[in-house]
Amino acid sequence: MTATYPARGADLDGLVADVTRSDATLRRFLHGLPGVDQVGAEARAAALGTRSIKTTAKAFALDLAIRMVDLTTLEGQDTPGKVRALAAKAMRPDPADPTCPSVAAVCVYPDMVADVKQVLGDSGVHIAAVATAFPSGRAAMDIKLADTRDAVEAGADEIDMVIDRGAFLSGRYLQVFEEIAAVREACARPDGTSAHLKVIFETGELQTYDNVRRVSWLAMLAGAHFIKTSTGKVQPAATLPVTLVMLEAVRDFREATGRMVGVKPAGGIRTAKDAVKYLVTVNEVAGQDWLDPDWFRFGASTLLNDLLMQRTKMTTGRYSGPDYFTLD
Amino acid sequence: MTRLDVRKTYKLYIDGAFPRSESGHSYEVLDGKGRFVANAALASRKDARDAVVAARKAFGGWSGRTAYNRAQILYRVAEIMEDRRPQFVDAVARAEGIGDGPAGKVVDASIDRLVWYAGWADKITQVLGNANPVAGPFFNLSTPEPTGVVAVLAPQGSSLLGLVSTVAPVIVTGNTAVVVSSYARPLPAVTFSEVLATSDVPGGVVNILTGDAATVGPWLAGHMDVNAIDLGGVAGRPALATELEVAAADNLKRVRRAPAAEPDWTDEPDLGAMTDFLETKTVWHPIGL
Amino acid sequence: MSNVFEYAPAPESRSIVEIKPSYGLFIGGEFVDGGGASFKTVNPATEEVLAEVAEGSSEDVDRAVKAARRAYDKVWSKLSGAERAKYLYRIARIIQERSRELAVLESIDNGKPIKESRDVDVPLVAAYFFYYAGWADKLEYAGFGTTPLGVAGQVIPWNFPLLMLAWKIAPALACGNTVVLKPAETTPLTALLFAEICQQADLPPGVVNIVTGAGATGQALVEHEGIDKVAFTGSTAVGKAIARSVAGTRKRVTLELGGKAANIVFDDAPIDQAVEGIVNGIFFNQGHVCCAGSRLLVQESVAEDVLERLKRRMATLRVGDPLDKNTDVGAINSAAQLARIRELSSVGEAEGAEAWSAPCDLPSTGFWFAPTVFTGVTQAHRIAREEIFGPVLSVLTFRTPAEAVEKANNTPFGLSAGVWTDKGSRILKIADKLRAGVVWANTFNKFDPTSPFGGYKESGYGREGGRHGLEAYLR
């Protein structure tokens, strides 16, 4: 079978209507996408990981990476105090250095949104809320939608939803599509604006790169603003090759439809060195248009301090230590 | 009143048919005691050319058959030789100037040799090929493959056992052959070609030219569509062998060099007569999900 | 278009390498003056003269062969396999220890990117020595006899100077032969550093001899009556000359020659990996690779898409300073090779094929050629038939599997081929039909010491690597 992407300049609405007529048409479309060879994809990611990013390029990359962080806490033990402290850190990650940029967003459970909002105000740092029965996604549809509406109502700028992996793995693609589309509708605010929707695949459960490519297209067709690797609750979480395949997907999707979608690897990215590898991959696979917090994010918590530490090394010329960075 | 005998015309064997030499030439074949036996077709360069075309045409089909099938066909050739044993004994006795007893031993050895090679068809890959444990997520397999069209200058002395011992190893692995028989002792080769024609060997797989290796050989050695050459038929003629080896370099033919003297063909062969006309192909494939 | 994320220079330090002003020959375990002239080896990225190197005369070659013979008769052939193995293991370890030095020197003398010399060439060199070391005391299990041939004369090319040395020397020594090796004229320095490594490993004198020089030196070696074996990697023309020169002798020969490999992309290929494979196939090592995938055969139905993706990918290739860790494509090895690439490229354009080159700034000194792809190429074009040995890809299309195989095989060469498809049975069928010694399916340009390498037809004969590679050095 010829493996193909939609022709360039495809009409997105027409394409969506076309491929979502039935489970069969959607399946045909997704399975008609070119396959991904695991070994080749991993070799490409590894090769990109050997780029040597030094001096000015490193300084640029570190600041950009900080600006791309979705500073995250998603624990049962989260409290208003905890998330407020995190929000404060998000605005001023390095209190000792006013030139240090803010992060992109704070990512919390929906019931914490109001607390975070109080701290962030109009700082420009966004609030992201995980919704739709995060992390498993195992709840009735109306509950998932209510979860989403609650978060938006509480002030979330961005909704990080999880897909129903069970439905995806059993081939009920249309169900996954409709859930994403419905959640996107639930992101709407009364004033006509809408929270941005990130769609989490939990790629560690989908296992194959073929699945990652298919689910990426499925989510983009359903209206995702961002596609996101993982909840952080399942191993493996984000990996460079998975992110590579997703970056290829957003690149190809824009090529075909003209619509740009963002990418968010989340979980497992803990060092500045890793973050720089992701930025290199963004740069060389999707292109520099994606080198912007509007189009690429890191879902992370401990990553931020390592970025700050490396940044301090760049500015002072000395190696720093963990005691010099806040642990919120 | 004695019956007037019907004399046989000895012809070439090309592409499964028995043409005369396109040159129209033939030469006198004498027996071991110098008495006239028959006229044999004297192969020309154009006959060699035609034989190469036939061999090339047959290569895809022959090499594409299962090894089991090639084994069966070679065994079938042995069966038919056995069936025609008296005729071969007579041919060898006359060609080599030996008695029926020794000639019978030669024929037996030739048939046994063919059976031995027939059995190799579906084993040589296992003996020569192997999986390679490369340091990475790849399946990697090396297997022997036939090199293509092989020119065989058959031994001059051993008219049947030498012939079988040089032709069988070439074709059992899937090559096709253009054979120049012993010049002075061509009759067993002609009889052998009649066996090939009535067994299941497809036309063109073996082509047998009677004639002079010194005149036809250079055309085959220099032919750009011949992949390999066995110089056994010019054993003991180093100047000619060198000339042929030089010509063979034009397209980098695989060359099985001529020995200083013709070997004792009753010795158990090693794998060299097969491996000299085999390539090793190595295929890589990623191992992934 | 300028990029917001411009990678700053990341040069590998040269300080680890010490290049002497001049080098002699390595004969009988010592560096000795050559009896003949000398030549200069230059850094192809800068045209800076690196060193003066002795040009081995026929007398020098004779001295080296005699030293190898003495070492063979008196020492090496008498040593147990286990002892030979330990010498080879020792060499392998020293190569690993001095890997950075070897990689930097290789990049300076050859022009290849440091990331390749560091991550591909030198690790493989060590791996080949490790692999063949282990064979030295296990030869009776390999099936090729256990008797060495004697003295091997080995002539290697400039595209993988140290790796080709390893392919030649490691199996030869493991099997109990001694060697005289002639490195390429433009890339002698790592072979001379290897000679130092032999000294460091206390390898008995004369087991390895290195005679630098050009074609005449190589010819003197190949034609020397005192050698038992010729191993050559290089051009098909020289390979044929060698085949002629050894005619009538008892010398054994292996030849690893040119290629014009087809890289076949079917419409169901894993497209992104196929594009990587195409890029790796032709731009790895500046295309100075005998098994390079220099003919892209792409199924018509996806040709346009594949080409757009290929060009987009080529635009990200970083061409420049070989010592910069981010360089993907380095310098062309010599002025002569650059002239050859330019000539064939202009022939391609004159014959009506359309050239597209990746947008990149080439340095003003040194030898450079931008990664280039020719479209509209047919089998009749010279650029589809002749080995360019540079970063130049010819693109042809096909409609059916049969046509792909026919075009792939329609060449006097038969070294390697690639096939890209998600259909397993098709891979096996196409791989079976391709007349090439190495077939990479859904990958390309992979090498491993356990994997035999070598060609069909005019790509030469014999195999290097793997168990099969022992055959060339045993009887």
From TrEMBL, chain A:
Q: Name the domain of life this protein comes from.
A: Bacteria
Q: Which UniProt keywords apply?
A: Lyase, Schiff base
Example GO biological process: carbohydrate catabolic process
**EC number(s) of the enzyme?**
4.1.2.4
Q: Origin organism of this chain?
A: Nocardioides terrae
Return the protein name.
Deoxyribose-phosphate aldolase
SUPFAM superfamilies according to UniProt: Aldolase
Q: What CDD domains does the entry give?
A: DeoC (cd00959)
Q: What reactions does this protein catalyze?
A: 2-deoxy-D-ribose 5-phosphate = D-glyceraldehyde 3-phosphate + acetaldehyde
Q: Name one GO cellular component term.
A: cytoplasm
Is Lyase found in the keyword set? yes
InterPro entries (alphabetical): Aldolase_TIM, DeoC, DeoC/FbaB/LacD_aldolase
Q: Which GO terms describe its molecular function?
A: deoxyribose-phosphate aldolase activity
Query: What protein family does this chain belong to?
Result: Belongs to the DeoC/FbaB aldolase family. DeoC type 2 subfamily.
SMART domains found in the cross-reference section: DeoC
What pathway is it annotated to?
A: Carbohydrate degradation; 2-deoxy-D-ribose 1-phosphate degradation; D-glyceraldehyde 3-phosphate and acetaldehyde from 2-deoxy-alpha-D-ribose 1-phosphate: step 2/2
Q: What class of enzyme is it?
A: lyase
From TrEMBL, chain B:
Question: Which ranges does the record mark as transmembrane?
Answer: none
Q: Where is the Aldehyde dehydrogenase domain?
A: 33-255
**Which GO molecular function, any one, fits this protein according to its record?**
oxidoreductase activity
Supply the InterPro entries for this chain.
Ald_DH/histidinol_DH (IPR016161), Ald_DH_N (IPR016162), Aldehyde_DH_dom (IPR015590)
Which Gene3D superfamilies does this one have? Aldehyde Dehydrogenase, Chain A, domain 1 (3.40.605.10)
UniProt keyword annotations, A-Z:
Oxidoreductase
Protein name, please?
A: Aldehyde dehydrogenase family protein
Automatic annotation (TrEMBL), chain C:
GO terms for MF: oxidoreductase activity, acting on the aldehyde or oxo group of donors, NAD or NADP as acceptor
Q: Which SUPFAM superfamilies match?
A: ALDH-like
Task: Give the source's domain of life in one word.
Answer: Bacteria
Could you tell me which residue ranges the Aldehyde dehydrogenase domain spans?
A: 32-474
Q: Which residues form the active site?
A: 256
Oxidoreductase found in the keyword field: yes
Any Pfam family hit: Aldedh
Q: Which UniProt keywords apply?
A: Oxidoreductase
Sorted alphabetically, which PANTHER family does this protein's record hold? ALDEHYDE DEHYDROGENASE-RELATED
What does the similarity note say?
A: Belongs to the aldehyde dehydrogenase family.
**What protein name does the entry list?**
Acyl-CoA reductase
Q: What is the lineage of its organism?
A: Bacteria, Bacillati, Actinomycetota, Actinomycetes, Propionibacteriales
